[in-house]
Amino acid sequence: MKKYIFIFLLFMSKKGVSQYLNTSGSWYPNVASNVIAEAGLNYNTTYKIQSQTNQTMLNLSLGGGIFNTLFNGWQVDVSRSDIHWNSNLKLEVKRTSNGTGSIFSSISGGTIDQQVLTSNSSFFNGVGNFSNISVQYQISGFSVLIPVDTYSTTVIFTLIDN
Question: What is the average per-residue pLDDT within 80-90?
Answer without folding.
Answer: 93
